[in-house]
Amino acid sequence: MLAFKRTFQPAVVMNLIARQCFTARGVCQKVPPRISACKVDNRWLNADEVRKEADDWDFSEEGRLRQAKRMADFAQAQVDQGKIALCDFVAPTTITRDTFHADFTIWLDTIDESRFEDTNALFEWPTQFNLRLADWNYDIGAIVAAIEEKRNA
Questions:
Q1: What's the CA gap between 129 and 132, in Å, rounded?
Q2: Phi/psi of residue 112, each to 5°?
Q3: Three-state secondary structure along 10-76?
Q4: Angle 140-151/21-37 helices, nearest 10 degrees?
Q5: N or C: which terminus of the chain carries fewer CB neighbours within 10 A?
Q6: What b/e readout covers 2-40, taking b as 16+ CB neighbours within 10 angstroms?
Q7: Span 52-69, pLDDT tens digits
Q8: What is the CATH number of domain 2-151?
Q9: What b/e sequence results for 51-72 when a residue is b if at least 16 CB atoms lie within 10 Å of its CB, and e otherwise?
Q10: Alpha-carbon distance 57 to 79, whole Å?
Q11: In Å, how far are 34, 38, 48, 126 from 94, measured between CA atoms?
């Protein structure tokens, strides 16, 4: 899930829904430089790096919910500084996505299943998202434009 979030500031937290983190990471690596080029301060938060900092590798439902909350807290700290927080993490359930509460969500729907059976067992199809990427032929410029449109709304 790649999402952005905003409160009362013109910053946002963006989240990308994906079944595997390497898929989300690929898109996230491309977005921040393009947003920076628009002279907008941003921070990319990668779930693996956040888990590493917390030393929390629990992938149970409870652990995933805790990670969604942790990602939301880290993102909010960036928003409080007036930045766009770009977050990539696997949020396979509605409750993990709702806990994160993104302002803008991209569903990266490019694989049929995760390599992790526990993720496949938990996965709930997203029903709320701002943008769905169904293949690798996406236009990063269009993604950035959609983010900017939402941010300026």
A1: 7
A2: -80, -30
A3: CCCEEEEECCCHHHHHHHHHHHHHHHHHCCCCEEEEEHHHHHHHHCCCCCCHHHHHHHHHHHHHHHH
A4: 70
A5: C
A6: bbbbbeeeebbbbbbbbbbbebbbebbeebbebbeeeeb
A7: 999 999 999 999 999 999
A8: 3.40.50.300
A9: beeeeeeebeeeebbbbbebbb
A10: 26
A11: 29, 32, 20, 7
86: three-class secondary structure by DSSP: strand
- Partnered with residue 106 across adjacent β-strands are 2, 131
- Distance CA(37)–CA(130), nearest Å, equals 22
Query: What is the number of helices (H) and of strands (E) in the chain?
Result: 6, 6
Token readout for 105 is: 């969500």
Q: What is the dihedral of CA 113, 114, 117, 119, to 10 degrees?
A: -100
pLDDT digits (tens, 9 = 90+) for 112-152: 888 889 988 999 988 988 888 887 787 878 887 887 787 77
Write the CB contacts of 112 (distance below 8 Å, at least 6 apart in sequence). none
